[in-house]
Structures are given as structure tokens and as C-alpha cells.
């Protein structure tokens, strides 16, 4: 996909720097701000009960381009949003004498729940129309209210718990399962049953070659289940756009589809593959045939072929040494 | 009338210059030694006839003895003195010290400026250095050559250029260009608020170290020197194609009663034979020495302003310091067009080199002047080509300069909370005692400064280690910094670089210098450490670096986060974003480029280029367009018209791409009545899909 | 439908989605059986400090009143219930964003209301009609209670619920506009309602189509216009919201026949709303898409479209 705007937009870099973050007026250690990952972590155990965080930011625009360009009344705004709370806050930045645009954005505990997104847009008048979006910072910053370290969430939740002794009633019922995959939450979760004898020690502390190969087999089996479950969850919650085609979802579902669809429907673009899967699933035709490919894609992600081969070789060697 | 301007001083100077004792003069004038002594000590003035006799004795113009100053003018007769070949027949085809350096302006700027810094005079004011590139041609060049006594020089240059060695080839190239283009590049390096070339003509001192000797580093005890006038000065000659450097120095301590315009030229050539006579190598331009034992050797002379100007060596003020003029300056890596030195490129190179090497010395605090100010200018026949540009360190090393400035201003913090802050940590360096003294080790508290790197900072994530006059010894990436740590800049100031005083500071400075190899590029175990210091000294530099790394990690490291849930074997199989953004070889056609505009009817007219995976069958594609809302919202648009442009044909609503091609393009006009909003209000998106079914 | 389940818990709790989905049987969706209240309570977690606002009785009363009042026109219950639910279940947005709270509401506190309000029409003779599962456990703009609370939150103007009431009176607004991120900008939300009100006043046909078209237009135009700059608004006064929440301890039950007062966290400037109304109306009127449709309607014969007044 490529897009065109109906008026000239700014091409140069728009850089956003978080200068500092204060929780209820006290500065946060700068190590809770990651410029690499564009994440601010707001959760300090010692100060769990804060009310407002204030994010001071500085934006540099391609000034020469803007001076020379067809835009007038150029302003720069910072926008803080969170989907879960429908929060949206726009704060105009002010231009300092050195050309940098600066300002601060409040993050209220009442308006935000887990992760807010901070973006910066440049707005101006073009061709007589005011308020045109003429540029935006490349990527959003994540303001994570629950994280202690500024990192993007990249992996599923893995919860090690004794199902039988759990507070969660549904887990107790399933206490005979060694593991479970739950895709209903904000992030998918793999539950490992520590009450399942031998599972936790195997996964966490294999020593001998045989133990290691068994560990690999089990781990890849669990991961294969997880990928399969995630794929099904991702294709079952699709939003259908105005044109009747399914839209690519966001978050972990997007990651799962981007990783697996090329193996499920080879040689097709993401949109084409998604439409294909969606149609087969809804009208049922060819849906069961597709399972083979979903399984293949999940096994590939879970590296099952590699672990099976390792296990087989380990067995061979064990037999050889017994002879 | 001051002491210096007195007749006594004048007379003493004449005696010294001519290496004549008071007794010899007394004998020549037929009077007592006490009488001459009375003149020298200004206790008496000679009668007029005696004055004339004195002038005659010293071979001066009539009236010199009364006007005092005029005497020198006339006295100066400049000669080129070429050292005779060694009596043992040895031949040297180049200066070994100069060989250590390529002709490189960056190296020159580093070495020459470090020397100036080391020779700084008043520590409360900055040492100022100025680099001036000056291209001469035509009349201006001819005048300069006359003053240089080119005719005496040229046969030697031509003779030396006949060899096949490296120096000779450079020289030959220089002469060829001079002949062909009739232009010559001068590079002048001035320093002010520096010691100047003090000391006697041949004996130990700054002057002799620069002009007469090789590898005399003159390391004065207890000075925060880097390695002044050692190898470094050889870069001056290395950067001259002709091996020729002229000097004009204003001395901080008088010599022969003079401060200003001590001038001399030195030429470094290989062995050569001129008019059948062999010469060893070096030559000097100066006043013929009359002292027994040095007769006809060219020595420095006290020039008048006019001569200084004629040799392009006039100085701005009476402030002490030296001006070096590199005649036939060049840079191996930066030659520009033949015959036309690329002044802009050379100017830039000098500015960047000065910033690179001396940003720290050039950094000032609110109330503390910098140690150094540097500027670069370029001229052509006296006309300004690039006006003098002061090197601003913050333009090149913003984060580093911010860190150092915060230290100088005392506004550092213990813990970083903002992007512009600078954290300071003290890192102890236990300096071991000298061997055999039985003294105790002393503790020096080095300064570690850390600040978040700026956007576009080059090479972040390293620690710059400095000592002395904020001289960079090394840049090292600290060990065991956690992955994903944000980019930072760090500076370690040790010894005198801390700006602090005290025996432990001096001890640390000496210790660290002893731990440097001749390249001065790291602190590690050296032979000197083993010999000079007590046991345990050898491992000390390494321990110190480890302590610095640990202090740095303390500042930039994140709080230890609890181990993430789950066995690692499983976690690595569940990474969600490993493939996101990583492009696979796409096996399907994609839009490579679109351009277009809205026409008078309100329709988008677009030109679409496709990237096509080659295959033997045609591709049947459906071009799709929509207005692209936020968060994935779209409003589909239909085409009023599609037209093939290249490698394809239009088949109804589809594009049929020819087999075997790698790209195709077509044009489209959107159907206005399908626009949800007027085109001017929306972002247009275009893509291609696999054509589906048999839609008409 | 008016059986009162025994042992209604006194305060709200948080019901994990996994546990909630487990009990979403066909019997529950059709209303034939009650969700297992004891098991669900056991699966739930306490909501934290006890406070009057978490009491279930006032909500339960409202729900029952709604079912009584709108027995014949259940869609109209939305406009009545939304502001009253919002003013009864006083909480911050952060709290309202927790799906576990809404799971508890729909499965433990008032499953009967969900079935009553959302059970579809009889489509076949063999199977009983059901309420969609996402009305019990689902995203905020689908969930039977969450969508009402959020509609009131997004479309109120400070303490004034009239705009929210108007919004909830139109199913297309609830259905389409509520899921539009553009309305997170409060002047945009109110301007959208104003444009609709103006259209309604002109008695245009197919108002629902206009709502959907307008929502899409606003979303598309947002890719080129920054509404936040054209129509500035102060951030909400969060202290006022917290004060209003604290008043829940002593506040009387919400009035049943007049609108309650919401939190005084700041009104949206009229100038900002007007600026956007002007743009939205212009875009809507100039929409080539709409014109084409208008033209088709004209060709089909004038007056036909007016045959269905009073949407």
C-alpha cells in the first residue's frame, strides 16, 4: 500500500525527545525512560499511589524545510491517547528561541489505565485550509503505567501456577492439564501447571542431554499449541471494513498474523491472505484443509522440527552407548 | 628610558651577538676593561669618537650606536646555511621523525595545537591558536620567494628532488606544481598566550628543541604536558611539500634583551649534492653566526616588522607565542584539483580536527574561560576566501560539551532524571608509591561524567578518558553495559584534567602518563610502571578501568527487573515481534511508487508503479483505492478509468501483467461519485490485490 | 422475566473473562437459565475499598425500572438508562476500562436485562433467539452496560447529560459513532451530535444512513485535518471528577424522570463545537457519494424518501 496526500507535507525528520518525567512533582530516574524503545515506565513500587505524571518533551522540526515550504501558521501538538479509556489529550507545544518546540503533557491516573500512546503532529495552513496535518513524528512513545522498566512488550505472559491450588476456579477444574493457553486477555497467556509433577523442573532445569532434548520437545509442543491458539483467536475477531474485507487487527494479533500468514497462504500479500482465510473460515469451504497449513506455520514458529531432530539424535546416541 | 633601551643593554647585546668579550673590546678600543664595563652597566657613556669606533668594530652603520634600534636592521644579512655531509659519508634520505607522520592536516592540527596548549603561559586565560591557509600566486608569490632567497634555495630543492625516496617524490611533485601553476599554499599556525621559542640558540631550551633538534620532548617536570615538541613538531615539516617551515616567535622571557620577532627558517631535505658538494640534509635560514665554532651557521635573527610582514609572519600583538609558516602546505588525502588547493575542504578538515581533538579544552564554564580557543581562516593573495571561523565545540560534541560544562559550573547531579542532565560519580584511583620509597599509596578521586547522548551524536556509548590539559587518551566502550541501555556519552577526567590541585592529583597524572605507551592512546601495563612504581602498579590501570565501568553502569543501568515469567526455553519460542518488519522475499506484486494529483473534476489522477516477482505466467491483479482514515478506517473508491503504461494491459477492472517482467505501471482516474468526501479532504491509498472471481 | 434471582451480592466485584466465558452457555444467552451466581461469585475478585458507589442495589433498581418503563420499546431504554447508569456507577475512566467489572454486571448483577434488551428476533422455528455473547462479555462498545456507561461518558458535556441522552436515542450513533476514535476528542463528539440534530430538524430521510456516512467522513477527514487544533478544548478537570465520585457516598438515588447531574469537569467551548460543525456540514453536503445517492432518490421520484418520517 502506498498513500498520497492532497497537499504538500513535511518530509524531514521530526524528532521527539522526552526531557524528563515527574510523578506528582518528583522527577523519575532517567533510566525509566528508554529512547531506544520509546517507552516511559511509570511504575515505581515505592510510589504506587501517584495521581499525575507529567511528561516534558522537546520536538525538533526540519526548520529550513518548513520556512521554505508552502505552510503558514505552523504549530506543533503533542497528543496523548489510550484506547482502553478513550482518552485523548492534545497539548500545544511552544516554540523556544532556539527553534525547539517544548511543552509538557499530563498523564492522569484517572484517565489512563495501562498503556498510553504519545504522538506529535505538525499542523499548519496549506492552500487556504487551516488545521491541516502536515507532518508527524515517525513513531509513537508508549507511556506504560504498569511497567517498572521501559520495554516494549514482546512476548506472551507465561504464568507458572499450581492449577489445583489456584484462586481461579476454571483453572482448578483443569488441574490435570500440564499447560493451557488463554487468548482472551489483553495479551495471550500460557499457564504452566506447577502442580503437574515433573513439568516445572524439566522446563527450568534440564541437565543431561536426554533431559535437554525432552525439555525442547515439551517446550516446542507448548509453543506450537500457543501459536495455533493465537492464530485462531486472531482470525476469529476480525473487524470487517466498509469494503467488506477484513481489516488487519492491531497488537499481538497483528504480529501473529504477520508471522504466520505467509506460511498459511504462501505467495499472497497480507490483505489477500487475510481475506482468503476469513472467507474459508466463514463459509467453511476449505477451512479444514487449511488446518494443515496453520499447524505447519505454528510448528515452524515453535521450532518443532528442530527439537524433534535433536531428540531423535539424543536417543540414537543413548542407544549407541548402551550397546 | 628603560633598561632594555639603554646604551648599556645595546652594547651588551652587540658583544653577545659577536661573541666578543668586554676585554677584547677594551683592547680593540685601547682602553681598560673597567671602562667598557662602566658603559655596559650604564654608569658612563662613551664619547662621540668612541661611539664611531664601536660601530666600526662591530661593522655597523654610522649612527647605530646612538639610535640603538637601527643597528639590528642593518646588521641583518640573511643566509641559507646547509649542513655539510657527514664526514663518514653517511647519507640520510629523510627526517625519521617526519616519516612517522603522513602529510595530514588533521594530525598537524592535533599535534601543533597540543604543543601550543602545553606551552600555555597565563593559566587564567585561554591559549589562542589560529590556522590560516593562504594561497599565493603571481606577483605576491614572486615577492615572497625573493624574501625567502629562493635563488639560493632552489638548487638544493632540485637536487634533493632527484632521489627516488618518498620525501624526494613529494618534493618533486611540489616543485612541478609550483612550476606549472605558479601558486604556493602557505599554512600559518599562530599561538598566543604561549611561551614562545625561548632559550639560547643551540643549548637546551624551547628554541633549540624546535629548531635545532629532533625528538627533544623537553618534558618539564610537574607540568600537565602531553608530550610537547617531541615527535609532534615533525608534523609541521611533514605537511610541507618543500620540507620548509619559517618561524616568528614572541618570547615570554627575553633573550639577548629581545622579546619580539625572533625569526628563523628550517628546511628538511634528504642528502644531496649541489655543485659537487655533498650536504647532509637540514638547512637554516637566518643571520650568519659570527661566534667562533658556529661561524657561518644561520642563527635566529631579530627581525623588523617589515620583514615579518614580507615573510607572512607578522603577529597581531606583542602577546607571547609563536607563528609557524608551513611553506608548500599539503594534505595527502585532500589534494583537490591539481594546482588549485581545495581551500574549503582543507579549512573544513582543520575545523573538524580541532573540534575532534580539543572540544574539551575549548569548553568553557560560566565563570571559567576555556583552556583553548581556536579558529581557522583561508586567504588567496591576501583576499579573504573564508573568514576566520572560531571552532565552537558544542556544534560538534553537544552532549560531551554539556557534560564538561556542567562539571565546570558545578551543576551535575547524582542521579539522572532529565535528558539534559549530567551525572557525576567519583572513581577512586589508588596511585601506588614509587619503588623503594616505602611511601603509602595515595588516593586520587577521578571524575566520571555521564549524560544522555544527543540526537545524531556520533559514536555514543563510550567513555572518553582524559588527563592533563583535557587531552583525550582513549575512547572505550565500557564492559557489561546491559543490552538496550539508551545511548549515553561519558567522560572520565583524571589527574590535572579534573582541574583540581594537590599532591594526589600530580601523583595520578604522573602515574597515568607512565601507564601510556608512546602513542599515548591507552592506560595499561607499561615497562615504565614496572620499573618506577612499587609492586601492584601493573594491574592498577586495569582495576581502575573496571571501577570506572562499574560506576558508569551504576548511573546508566536500569533497576534490576525481576526475571520475566516462564522458562527461558519457552520464552524464546513465543517472541511476538521477531518477524514484524523483517521483510521476507515477497512472492507477490506490490506497489512500489505512486504519484498523482487531483484534477479539475475532483478526481485523483494517479500513476502507479508495481514491483512484480518474475514468473512465466501473467499476473492478474485488481488495483484498489480507498480513502485512508485513521486506525484502519477506509472508504473504498472505484476507478473511472484505467490505462496501461508499461508491461501490462487492462482487462476490465483488472491489470494483466505480462509474464517474465519485474515491473509494470499503469495510470488510473478515480470515479468522483464514489468518493465519500471531496478528494482534497482525504489521504488516498492505492494497493493491488489478487483479482478475484469473474466480476465484470 | 421479572424473577429476582436470590442472593444478589451487595457490592460489585471483578469477574475474570475466562471464567465469565465459561458460564456463557446457550441457556444463559437465551435467558432460559440463570448464570450460576454462586460459582461466578467464587470466581470473582473483590473490587478494592468498599464504597457506596459499588453497591449493586441502586444499579439493580435502575435496571428493573428500565425494563418496566420500556417493556414495549426496549431500544428506547438506552437513552433513559445511559445517563442514570453513569451517574449511579460513578467511577473514573481508568476504572471503567476494566472489562472484569462489566463481566460481573452482565453475568451476576443483571443477566436478565442483557437478555431482555438484546435478544434478537425469532429467526427460525427450531432454535430460540439468543442475546449475542458479546453483550455479556465483550468490547466496550458492544457490552450491554459498558456501551451505555461509555456513551454517557463520551457524549456528555460536562455535567450536562442532554447531549448523551440525545446520542443514545439513536441506535446508529451507539452502534457506529461510539466505536469511532475521533469522538475521543470531545468537541468532535458534540459536533457530530449537533450536525445530526440539524439534519433531524430538517427532517432528512434515512437519518441512520447519514449517521454512518457522517461517522466515516469524520474519520476520513481526520487524516488531513487536526480537529484538536481547529477546535481546542481544555483537558477535563480530573479533580472535579474525583469530587463527584466521592459525593456518591452521600448522594441520593438518581432522579427517574429528570436527568441527573454529571461531574463538573468542564464544558466544551461552543466556538470549538461550531468550528467543527461548519466543517462537518460542509464535507457532508459536498460528499460526492451522498450527492449521487440524493440524485438517485430524486430520479426515483420526489417524496418517496419522506414516506418514513420520525426516525
From TrEMBL, chain A:
Domain of life: Bacteria
Stated name of the protein: Uncharacterized protein
Species of provenance: Streptomyces sparsogenes DSM 40356
Lineage of source species: Bacteria, Bacillati, Actinomycetota, Actinomycetes, Kitasatosporales
UniProtKB/TrEMBL annotation, chain B:
PROSITE patterns named in the record: HTH_CROC1
Lineage: Bacteria, Bacillati, Actinomycetota, Actinomycetes, Kitasatosporales
CDD domains associated with the record: HTH_XRE (cd00093)
GO molecular function, one term: DNA binding
Protein name (Swiss-Prot/TrEMBL): HTH cro/C1-type domain-containing protein
Pfam families: HTH_3
Domain of life (superkingdom): Bacteria
InterPro entries: Cro/C1-type_HTH, Lambda_DNA-bd_dom_sf
Gene3D superfamilies in alphabetical order: lambda repressor-like DNA-binding domains
Chain ranges of the HTH cro/C1-type domain: 21-65
Amino acid at each position: 500500500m502506498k498513500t498520497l496526500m492532497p497537499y504538500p507535507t513535511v518530509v524531514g525528520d521530526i524528532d521527539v525527545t522526552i526531557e524528563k518525567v515527574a510523578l506528582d512533582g518528583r522527577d523519575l530516574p532517567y533510566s525509566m525512560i528508554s529512547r531506544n524503545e520509546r517507552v516511559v515506565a511509570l511504575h515505581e513500587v515505592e510510589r504506587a499511589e501517584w495521581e499525575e505524571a507529567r511528561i516534558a518533551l522537546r520536538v525538533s522540526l526540519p526548520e529550513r524545510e518548513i520556512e521554505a515550504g508552502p505552510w503558514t501558521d505552523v504549530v506543533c501538538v503533542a497528543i496523548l491517547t489510550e484506547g482502553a479509556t478513550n482518552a485523548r489529550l492534545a497539548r500545544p507545544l511552544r516554540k523556544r528561541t532556539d527553534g525547539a518546540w517544548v511543552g509538557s503533557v499530563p498523564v492522569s491516573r484517572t484517565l489512563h489505565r495501562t498503556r498510553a500512546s504519545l504522538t506529535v503532529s505538525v499542523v499548519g495552513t496549506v492552500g487556504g485550509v487551516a488545521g491541516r496535518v502536515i507532518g508527524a513524528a515517525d513513531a509513537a512513545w508508549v507511556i506504560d503505567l504498569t511497567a517498572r522498566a521501559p520495554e516494549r512488550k514482546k512476548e506472551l505472559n507465561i504464568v507458572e501456577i499450581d492449577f489445583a491450588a489456584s484462586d481461579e476456579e476454571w483453572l482448578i477444574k483443569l488441574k490435570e492439564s500440564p499447560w493451557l493457553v488463554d487468548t482472551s486477555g489483553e495479551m495471550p497467556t500460557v499457564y504452566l501447571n506447577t502442580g503437574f509433577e515433573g513439568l516445572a523442573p524439566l522446563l527450568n532445569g534440564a541437565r543431561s542431554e536426554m533431559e535437554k532434548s525432552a525439555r525442547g520437545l515439551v517446550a516446542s509442543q507448548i509453543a506450537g499449541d500457543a501459536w495455533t491458539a493465537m492464530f485462531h483467536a486472531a482470525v476469529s475477531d476480525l473487524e470487517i471494513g466498509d469494503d467488506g474485507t477484513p481489516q488487519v487487527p492491531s497488537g499481538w494479533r497483528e504480529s501473529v498474523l504477520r508471522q504466520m500468514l505467509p506460511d498459511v497462504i504462501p505467495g499472497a500479500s497480507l490483505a489477500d491472505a487475510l481475506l482468503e482465510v476469513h472467507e474459508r473460515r466463514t463459509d467453511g469451504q476449505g477451512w479444514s484443509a487449511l488446518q494443515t497449513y496453520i499447524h505447519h506455520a505454528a510448528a515452524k514458529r515453535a521450532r518443532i522440527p528442530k527439537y524433534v531432530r535433536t531428540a531423535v539424535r539424543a536417543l540414537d546416541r543413548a542407544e549407541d552407548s548402551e550397546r | 628610558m628603560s633598561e632594555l633601551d639603554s646604551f648599556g643593554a645595546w652594547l651588551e647585546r652587540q658583544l653577545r651577538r659577536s661573541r666578543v668579550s668586554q676585554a677584547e673590546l677594551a683592547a680593540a678600543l685601547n682602553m681598560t676593561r673597567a671602562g667598557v664595563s662602566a658603559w655596559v652597566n650604564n654608569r658612563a657613556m662613551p664619547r662621540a669618537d668612541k661611539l664611531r669606533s664601536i660601530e666600526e668594530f662591530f661593522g655597523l652603520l654610522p649612527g647605530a650606536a646612538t639610535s640603538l634600534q637601527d643597528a639590528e636592521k642593518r646588521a641583518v644579512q640573511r643566509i641559507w646555511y646547509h649542513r655539510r655531509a657527514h664526514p663518514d659519508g653517511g647519507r640520510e634520505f629523510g627526517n625519521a621523525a617526519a616519516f612517522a607522520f603522513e602529510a595530514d592536516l588533521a594530525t598537524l592540527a592535533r599535534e601543533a595545537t597540543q604543543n601550543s596548549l602545553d606551552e600555555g603561559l597565563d593559566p587564567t586565560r585561554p591559549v589562542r591558536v589560529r590556522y590560516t591557509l593562504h594561497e599565493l600566486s603571481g606577483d605576491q608569490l614572486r615577492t615572497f620567494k625573493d624574501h625567502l632567497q629562493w635563488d639560493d634555495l632552489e638548487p638544493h630543492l632540485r637536487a634533493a628532488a632527484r632521489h627516488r625516496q618518498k620525501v624526494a617524490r613529494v618534493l618533486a611533485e611540489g616543485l612541478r606544481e609550483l612550476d606549472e601553476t605558479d601558486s604556493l599554499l602557505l599554512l600559518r599556525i599562530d599561538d598566543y598566550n604561549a611561551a614562545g621559542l625561548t632559550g639560547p640558540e643551540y643549548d637546551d631550551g624551547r628554541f633549540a628543541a624546535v629548531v635545532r633538534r629532533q625528538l627533544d620532548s623537553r618534558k618539564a617536570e610537574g607540568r600537565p604536558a602531553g608530550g610537547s615538541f617531541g615527535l609532534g613538531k615533525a608534523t609541521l615539516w611533514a605537511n610541507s611539500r618543500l620540507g620548509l617551515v619559517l618561524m616568528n616567535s614572541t618570547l615570554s622571557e627575553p633573550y639577548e634583551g629581545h622579546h619580539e620577532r625572533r625569526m628563523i627558517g628550517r628546511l628538511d631535505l634528504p642528502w644531496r649534492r649541489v655543485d659537487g658538494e655533498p650536504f647532509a640534509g637540514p638547512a637554516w635560514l637566518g643571520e650568519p653566526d659570527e661566534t667562533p665554532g658556529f661561524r657561518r651557521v644561520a642563527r635566529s635573527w631579530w627581525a623588523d616588522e617589515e620583514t615579518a610582514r614580507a615573510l607572512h609572519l607578522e603577529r597581531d600583538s606583542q602577546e607571547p607565542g609563536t607563528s609557524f609558516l608551513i611553506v608548500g602546505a599539503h594534505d595527502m588525502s585532500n589534494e583537490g584539483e591539481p594546482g588549485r588547493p581545495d581551500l574549503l575542504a582543507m579549512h573544513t578538515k582543520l575545523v573538524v580536527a580541532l573540534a575532534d581533538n580539543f572540544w574539551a579544552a575549548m569548553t568553557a564554564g560560566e565563570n571559567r574561560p576555556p583552556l583553548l580557543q581556536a579558529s581557522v581562516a583561508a586567504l588567496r593573495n591576501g583576499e579573504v576566501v573564508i573568514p576566520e571561523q572560531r571552532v565552537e565545540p558544542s556544534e560538534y560534541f553537544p552532549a560531551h560539551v554539556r557534560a564538561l560544562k556542567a562539571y565546570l559550573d558545578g551543576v551535575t547531579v547524582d542521579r539522572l532524571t532529565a535528558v539534559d542532565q549530567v551525572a557525576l560519580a567519583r572513581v577512586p584511583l589508588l596511585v601506588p608509591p614509587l619503588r623503594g620509597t616505602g611511601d603509602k599509596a595515595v588516593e586520587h578521586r577521578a571524575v566520571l561524567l555521564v549524560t544522555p547522548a544527543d540526537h545524531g551524536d556520533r559514536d555514543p556509548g563510550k567513555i572518553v578518558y582524559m588527563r592533563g590539559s583535557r587531552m583525550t587518551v582513549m575512547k572505550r566502550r565500557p564492559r557489561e553495559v546491559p543490552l538496550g541501555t539508551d545511548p549515553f556519552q561519558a567522560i572520565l577526567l583524571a589527574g590535572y584534567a579534573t582541574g583540581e590541585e594537590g599532591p594526589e592529583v600530580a601523583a595520578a597524572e604522573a602515574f597515568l602518563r607512565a601507564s601510556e605507551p608512546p602513542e599515548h592512546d591507552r592506560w595499561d601495563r607499561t615497562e615504565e610502571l614496572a620499573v618506577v612504581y612499587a609492586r601492584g602498579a601493573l594491574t592498577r590501570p586495569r582495576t581502575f578501568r573496571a571501577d570506572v565501568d562499574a560506576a558508569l553502569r551504576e548511573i546508566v543501568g536500569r533497576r534490576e527487573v525481576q526475571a520475566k515469567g516462564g522458562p527461558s526455553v519457552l520464552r524464546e519460542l513465543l517472541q511476538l515481534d521477531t518477524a514484524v518488519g523483517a521483510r521476507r522475499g515477497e512472492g507477490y506484486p506490490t506497489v512500489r511508487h505512486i504519484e498523482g494529483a487531483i484534477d479539475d473534476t475532483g478526481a485523483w489522477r494517479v500513476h502507479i508503479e508495481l514491483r512484480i516477482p518474475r514468473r512465466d505466467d501473467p499476473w492478474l491483479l485488481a488495483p484498489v483505492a480507498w480513502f485512508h482514515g485513521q486506525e484502519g478506517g477506509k472508504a473504498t473508491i472505484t476507478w473511472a478509468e484505467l490505462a496501461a503504461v508499461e508491461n501490462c494491459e487492462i482487462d476490465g477492472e483488472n491489470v494483466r501483467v505480462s509474464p517474465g517482467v519485474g515491473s509494470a505501471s499503469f495510470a488510473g482516474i478515480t470515479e468522483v461519485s464514489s468518493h465519500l468526501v471531496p478528494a482534497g479532504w482525504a489521504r488516498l491509498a492505492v494497493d493491488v490485490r489478487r483479482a478475484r472471481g469473474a466480476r465484470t | 422475566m421479572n424473577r429476582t434471582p436470590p442472593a444478589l451480592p451487595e457490592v460489585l466485584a471483578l469477574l475474570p473473562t475466562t471464567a465469565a466465558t465459561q458460564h456463557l452457555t446457550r441457556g444463559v444467552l437465551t435467558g432460559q437459565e440463570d448464570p450460576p451466581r454462586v460459582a461466578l461469585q467464587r470466581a470473582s475478585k473483590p473490587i478494592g475499598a468498599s464504597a457506596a458507589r459499588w453497591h449493586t442495589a441502586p444499579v439493580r433498581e435502575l435496571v428493573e425500572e428500565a425494563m418496566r418503563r420500556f417493556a414495549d420499546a426496549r431500544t428506547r431504554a438506552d437513552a433513559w438508562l445511559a445517563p442514570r447508569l453513569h451517574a449511579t456507577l460513578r467511577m473514573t475512566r481508568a476504572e471503567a476500562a476494566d472489562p472484569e467489572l462489566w463481566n460481573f454486571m452482565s453475568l451476576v448483577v443483571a443477566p436478565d436485562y442483557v437478555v431482555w434488551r438484546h435478544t434478537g428476533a425469532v429467526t427460525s422455528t427450531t432454535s430460540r433467539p439468543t442475546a449475542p455473547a458479546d453483550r455479556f462479555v465483550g468490547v466496550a462498545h458492544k457490552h450491554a452496560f459498558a456501551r451505555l456507561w461509555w456513551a454517557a461518558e463520551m457524549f456528555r458535556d460536562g455535567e450536562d447529560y442532554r447531549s448523551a441522552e440525545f446520542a443514545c436515542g439513536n441506535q446508529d450513533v451507539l452502534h457506529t459513532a461510539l466505536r469511532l476514535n475521533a469522538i475521543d476528542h470531545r468537541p468532535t463528539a458534540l459536533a457530530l451530535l449537533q450536525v445530526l440534530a440539524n439534519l433531524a430538524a430538517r427532517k432528512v430521510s434515512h437519518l441512520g444512513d447519514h449517521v454512518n456516512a457522517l461517522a466515516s467522513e469524520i474519520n476520513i477527514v481526520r487524516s488531513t485535518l487536526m480537529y484538536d487544533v481547529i477546535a481546542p478544548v481544555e483537558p477535563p478537570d480530573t479533580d472535579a471528577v474525583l469530587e463527584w465520585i466521592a459525593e456518591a457516598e452521600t448522594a441520593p438515588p438518581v432522579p427517574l424522570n429528570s436527568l441527573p447531574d454529571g461531574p463538573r469537569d468542564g464544558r466544551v467551548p461552543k466556538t470549538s463545537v461550531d468550528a467543527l460543525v461548519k466543517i462537518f456540514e460542509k464535507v457532508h453536503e459536498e460528499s460526492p457519494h451522498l450527492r449521487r445517492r440524493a440524485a438517485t432518490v430524486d430520479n426515483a421520484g420526489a417524496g418517496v424518501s419522506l414516506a418514513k418520517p420520525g426516525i
